[in-house]
Specification:
- This protein has no helices and eleven strands.
- It has 124 residues and is an all-beta fold.
- The radius of gyration is 21 Å and the shape is elongated.
- It starts with a strand and ends with a strand.
């Protein structure tokens, strides 16, 4: 028996897997899955709002390519308003403002490749 900790969509599961000697043996039944264990919260020290950076960060949810930037620095945006479009896995994903505010900075331009978690824009 081997124990593994698996994270699926932010939920952490403890899974036990039984090893068998042969592939041709009886079918392997899945071990019961325990209730989700809360993942530890990652906290980082807040970065100072210097160099035109806003207090509210808009991060890339996944790696991809910026197809379009729909706003500009200084523009007012409403909560849920599209800021830019990110192409990932051949799908267009709208990146929206998490809160109403003013665009303080845009950290990428059309055609840029971005990594998951990278700051795309910031709002005040």
């Amino acid at each position: 028996m081997k124990s593994y900790k698996i994270t699926v969509n932010g939920n952490v599961y403890d899974v036990v897997v039984e090893e068998t000697g042969s592939v041709a043996s009886a079918p392997i039944a899945a071990a019961p899955i325990a209730a989700p264990v809360a993942a530890p919260k990652q906290t980082a020290a807040p970065a100072p709002a210097a160099g035109g950076e806003g207090k509210i960060k808009v991060n890339a949810p996944m790696p991809g390519k910026i197809l379009a930037v729909k706003t500009s620095v200084g523009a007012s945006v409403a909560k849920g308003e599209v800021i830019m479009v990110l192409e990932a896995m051949k799908m267009e994903n709208e990146i929206v403002a998490p809160e109403a505010g003013t665009v303080a900075s845009i950290s990428c331009k059309e055609g840029d490749a971005v990594e998951a978690g990278s700051v795309l824009a910031s709002l005040n």
